[in-house]
Predict the structure.
Amino acid sequence: MNSLVVVKNLTRIFDVSKPWLNRVIEKLPRALLTAVSNVSLNIEEKTVYALVGESGSGKSTIGKMVVGLLPPSAGMVEVEGIDLFKSTDDDAVDRVRSDIQMIFQDLFASLNPRWRVRDIIAEPVAARSGKTDGLAERLLEQVGLSSKDADKYPHEFSGGQRQRICIARALASEPRLIVCDEPTSALDVSVQAQVLNLMSDLKDQLGLTYLFISHDLTVVRHMADRVGVLYLGRLVEEAPRDDLFDDPKHPYTKMLLEAAPKLDGFDRTPDLPEGEIPDPINPPSGCVFHPRCPLAIDRCKVEAPEARQIGRSWTACHLAE
Amino acid sequence: MEMPVLSVRDLVVEIPTRHAVLRPVNGVTFDLHRGEILGMVGESGAGKSMTGNAVIGLLDRPARIAGGEILLNGERIDQLHGEELRRLRGKHIGMVFQDPLTSLNPLLTIGEQLTETITEHLNVSAAEARQRAVDGLREVGIPAAEQRMDAYPHQFSGGMRQRVVIALALCAEPSLIIADEPTTALDVSVQAQIIALLKRLCRERGTAVMLITHDMGVIAETADRVAVLYAGRMAELGLARDVLTQPNHPYTIGLMGSTPLASAGRARLYQIDGSMPRLDALPSGCAFNPRCSRAQSKCSQDPSPSLAAHQDRAACWFGGENAQ
């Protein structure tokens, strides 16, 4: 199969130091936060790749680097074989950019309140001086709204309808890849079901590829073909969906699956996870998960594990089998 | 039968506006017994938080209790004002909100906040209050509780902060805790810790808990009984296991169907079309009828049958017969 997106050794470091004068007076060192550390993954065309992780795991940062909103500190992202930041072929970069779109979590911040829905949806095409006649109306019907809605403003819509507008806008430039950053986290469960169904339908009709970012394991299990689990910016496990959920290898994945509330978990007493996510500015030595890991041995405190293949899964753990 | 800790009868909350009087809570009735955890579920705007706020007297004006009764340990509390209400809160009812940062005072150490609450409600010396505060922190799992007494809220992580809030809610030994989305702002691993903590403490002390959440998984693992709210009314009330595995009300059936299930794999999710009606445009009859697959003419004319505590499980004309 064809890899639409290739991510290699991707790293992103944010400088979160205090201003220069404070550092001099208070004798503070520079503070560097490694949000994403050495992540490699491939996304096959027409599949859904999901990134899961808790807050601060770097999932949104990866999403932003894939669409080209943030430059990587090291490593590279190639979409359709083009590195958006390093390529010198301007035409190719331009073509690839119009093939990538993004859907955000915040339905209120991602639509301009002063624009009519027609202009919002047509913007990705208008910005490249394409033809926009009837485009918004057609897309609105495709996402299950009425073509008459094109004259309205965003505040006239409910949360679920706004997310449909965001989806319509993402479809306008006929993209191949859509990065969805927590697309249903702000929605109620009945509306979430409508949006997830719509996203599945559109994927089948239009042959889209999704990079699906979420913290919700049930949603990921429903949508994904392949899942990557992030912890503190490291990809700790990557596997086809069923392998990951039925037979997780990494202790963190196991912990996450155990901790998630189950719909049929009556009288269940889950094994409680230990501790909390450590400070990403001073991450633990060796394997970053070792302070919370029930299996940790001395080797884990010193040596960071490389990803190994076990069955169909890739796991970064010394002990997983 | 033992007297319920909390008894809510036909509660109506009204918000008068220029155009109409809105009823975010419209005839809610339930009992809550000692040591019991009652889950309140529903989507945004269903009236779950409004019900919780009405019980503890935290309705913001112009919202007001327009009908019904709220009894705590057999005494009416819906008519209280000022000083009486202040004594009630904290002493008899503890509250845990969604956002632990805004429920703590950023300018006081957590030790000061805990001892203040304890000396205010219990008749104890300053030294004993401090000791109780330390014990409280220890009990909710704050490491090095003694030293952490002098820390400010911003020095704690989100999960630790929520533990402090729980210690604060429990420190005056109330008989009822209202937990309004206590884990929604937390990560999965921390959520599991907080839920287990809340469950354990309330079991040990026999505290009744009203757990407001939108997460059906949390309800399944935590609640004894569950009340499903829709547009300010109770759609269904029953044992959590019964309601979740064999829902009777079409809304509950839809809600369960639209939750992605591990066992269902990739199957298309069940869709309840449309969205919850606005409070100023409630349909006549049963509020759910425009979205209901079973609706018949009766549903748009007669208001749905009311749900008397302990009797019918679902407030639906056809719920019992047609279910499953």
